[in-house]
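Sequence design from tokenized structure. All designs in this work follow the same two-part layout: the structure record, then the generated sequence. An example of the structure record is given first.
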């Protein structure tokens, strides 16, 4: 009997999948691959079911003879292992980033023997509804809130992009890239105080109040499903912070990062060029503990941000604070630096990891931007935040356009740099 292989990465079986199985059955005995979480989150929607649940679901399908786990998004290993006579897939993977997966299947079939069979993708109303329902489910607070903790367990490093509006949220949500045969996307979103303030034309001094920050978060949440980390500045007064923790939790925010500064907060990238006061360990620990006590779910995270290196207080101070903050209940540590190279960040992480292997570490490589995600992960860093690059790329582009329209008294000269207006009017999906 011939064997037919197909890989599923879905949480819900719809008529499209059933069609694939029906076609597969005609060719031989059907083996379904369940794509591992680690592989599928790099290009697909985050799973709402565990791998075990998905395996059981696929096993229960009529016509499926066996289910195996596919650990890599590429087909090379699984085809070498199973040597199926056929691989069957919907024809929707011929274009876009996912075509890299198709290429890997063709490559592996050439090497191991076997044939690729493609069936027409089912674009029915039912399939579209399943898709919409899944997306809406993932945007619900109970799914979104816990997702950051899930990602920290699943990923070598959680890739986080700054967002400050619905539009930037869509970019973080939908951008999928194929590079050197690998597919990738961002895992989470950072609501930066700097960029949220800048978008409103305000300085980054805790002037944009919590109501306004919550409004930004809501705009982002309306159009995305990925988890949100809020830049909570200093957390404000402890008496206020506890209320904000409850609000953020209820909304489905996954984490707030608060920094150990007090008084008028200035952006960390000013370093010691402006007056900035670090909070005492005692006060900041009390704020963390109060926040943790106010929290109602086990999922929300309060991450303590250490400003000792920014304020040139030394490595020992940074480490002492890190251990104290974890003791006070912090669910993660963010260590910040404005040095051009990551040496002091690595030194901190290596030393911290000697005594603490569990607590997630967050970094924001704005000034030490030559560092790669792989290097960060190798020093025990769990979350990387690209904190301001969207804003910093958009502003000069818009400024140049405004300048050139003024210069030429018309818009023709800027047109080649613009998104075609046909694209902008269809950019946002309608329900
Ligand atoms: C932000 O994005 O607002 C941050 C990171 O807090 S930094 O600007 O580097 O301080
Ligand atoms: Mg900030």
């Amino acid at each position: 009997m011939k064997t037919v292989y197909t890989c599923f990465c879905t949480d819900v079986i719809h008529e499209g999948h059933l069609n694939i199985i029906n076609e597969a059955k005609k060719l031989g005995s059907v083996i379904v691959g369940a794509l591992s979480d680690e592989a599928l989150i790099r290009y697909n929607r985050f799973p709402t079911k565990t791998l075990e649940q998905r395996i059981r679901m696929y096993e229960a399908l009529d016509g499926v003879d066996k289910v195996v786990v596919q650990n890599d998004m590429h087909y090379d290993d699984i085809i070498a292992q199973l040597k199926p006579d056929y691989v069957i897939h919907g024809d929707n993977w011929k274009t876009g980033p996912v075509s890299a997966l198709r290429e890997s299947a063709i490559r592996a079939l050439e090497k191991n023997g076997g044939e690729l069979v493609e069936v027409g993708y089912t674009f029915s109303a039912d399939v579209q509804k399943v898709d919409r329902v899944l997306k809406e489910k993932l945007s619900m607070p109970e799914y979104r809130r816990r997702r950051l903790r899930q990602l920290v367990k699943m990923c070598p490093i959680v890739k986080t992009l700054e967002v400050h509006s619905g539009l930037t949220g869509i970019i973080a949500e939908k951008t999928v890239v194929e590079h050197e045969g690998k597919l990738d996307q961002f895992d989470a979103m950072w609501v930066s105080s700097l960029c949220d303030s800048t978008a409103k034309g305000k300085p980054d001094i805790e002037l944009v109040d919590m109501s306004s920050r919550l409004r930004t978060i809501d705009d982002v949440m309306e159009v995305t499903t990925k988890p949100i980390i809020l830049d909570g500045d200093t957390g404000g007064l402890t008496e206020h912070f506890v209320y904000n923790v409850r609000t953020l939790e209820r909304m489905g925010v996954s984490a707030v990062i608060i920094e150990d500064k007090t008084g008028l907060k200035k952006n960390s990238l000013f370093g010691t060029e402006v007056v900035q006061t670090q909070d005492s360990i005692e006060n900041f620990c009390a704020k963390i503990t109060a926040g943790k006590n106010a929290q109602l779910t086990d999922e929300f995270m309060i991450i303590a941000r250490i400003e000792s290196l920014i304020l040139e207080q030394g490595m020992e101070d940074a480490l002492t604070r890190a251990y104290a903050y974890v003791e006070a209940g912090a669910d993660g540590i963010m260590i910040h630096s404005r040095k051009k190279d990551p040496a002091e960040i690595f030194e901190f992480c290596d030393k911290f990891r000697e005594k603490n292997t569990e607590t997630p570490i967050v970094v924001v490589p704005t000034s030490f931007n030559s560092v790669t995600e792989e290097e960060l992960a190798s020093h025990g860093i769990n979350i990387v935040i690209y904190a301001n690059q969207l804003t910093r790329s958009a502003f000069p582009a818009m400024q140049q356009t405004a300048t050139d329209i003024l210069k030429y008294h018309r818009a023709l000269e800027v047109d080649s740099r613009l998104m075609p207006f046909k694209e902008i009017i269809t950019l946002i999906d309608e329900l």
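The pocket of magnesium ion (ligand 2) is lined by residues 192-194, 204, 231, 233 (CB under 6 Å). We note this feature because it recurs in several other targets discussed in the main text.
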